[in-house]
Design brief:
Layout (H helix, E strand, L loop, with lengths): L4 H10 L7 E4 L2 H15 L4 E5 L12 E4 L2 H11 L3 E2 L9 E2 L3 E5 L10 E10 L4 E7 L6 H7 L4 E6 L7 H10 L4 H20 L2 E11 L5 E3 L3 E4 L21 H8 L3 E4 L4 E5 L2 H13 L6 E4 L6 H12 L6 E8 L4 H15 L6 E7 L2 H9 L5 E4 L2 H12 L1
Parallel strand pairs: 14-16, 16-17, 17-18
Antiparallel strand pairs: 1-6, 2-3, 2-6, 4-5, 7-8, 7-10, 8-9, 10-11, 10-12, 13-15
Length: about 400
Amino acid sequence: MNIHEYQGKEILKSYGVRIQEGIVVRNPDQAVEAAKRLTAETGTGWHVVKAQIHAGGRGKGGGVKLAKNLDQVRDHAKAILGMNLVTHQTGPEGRTVHKILIAQDVYYPGPSEPKEFYLSILLDRAKGRNVIMASTEGGMDIEEVAEHSPEKILKEWIDPRVGLQPFQARKVAFNLGLEGEAFKEMVKFIQALYRAYEDTDASQFEINPVLKTSDNKILAVDAKVNLDDNALYRHKAFEDLRDLNEEDPLEVEASAHNLNYVKLDGNVGCMVNGAGLAMATMDIIKLSGGEPANFLDVGGSANAQTVEAGFRIILKDPNVKAILINIFGGIVRCDRVANGVVEAYKNIGDIRVPIIVRLQGTNAEEGARIIDESGLKVYSAVLLKDAAARVKEVLA
């Protein structure tokens, strides 16, 4: 589950991670009041107005502005709130900005030059360990650094049996070229960040940039935090951090029906039970000359209600030209799924795209008979190659 920058920073602060202070607001008047409050609390004279959406690259898209006075705070707030912000992570459709963060200016003059770093923690699935990734090239797209200067990305893997060791935090800070007070501050920052990552069951913490201020403080200027959905039962309070405005409406609807759905850009909708079979089904669609329009796993207990909900969600995608249902009858019986398909088809009505149903497993023959005798625009298949041939046929 992705959360906003301001929410991620609140989590980090609760674990002792120093952050760029800020106040989230929803209108220009609140923005001005927030700026006055920040000035009183932090002494900042300038303020940063930051769009709050679930995407990076906000600055390049015009979603981050520096305000040198209260009039500029109001003007920037008016310009950013309600804008359709397009970044390299939103896609061309962009995202509407519903709230902004008024943050303190942390790039103030001092005895040394400010310096930006990149720091993230995530799971390296290949090694089965968490990894701390750091770079001196903070403030930049890390993808660009990885492509053109991979040697500038430092990695430190954490043994899950002992956790992050103090020498590893010192090693990262040293390799970033820090010394003196800034070195000590970075070590504390990394240790606190890792505690927050583990305690919250996060799947990713990305701080870009981490700033060494002109007086050698280390703080998080941004925070991209992704929490593991599967662990939310251990963190009930985190459920309130979900922002449905930032999620695809079809994915939100699917989650309400306990369906695992991810929208894609293709023309063949697919409904499958089991993630592995869903991946194989998408491969079959591509081999048949189509492109998968979605990933949809209805789980091992598919019934008429889940099939109908899946149908309705898939059909809301105007790009879908055909639907492939691929069910393995292990826990669920194929004849029950077939009856569910027929019932859902009749309930929805006016389905104008062909539907291919491939049933295999318990009562597969009975399921195929039900489909074939339904009189509906539904085609049955037994083998995957048969389903692929049907998809190719209906797309021709």
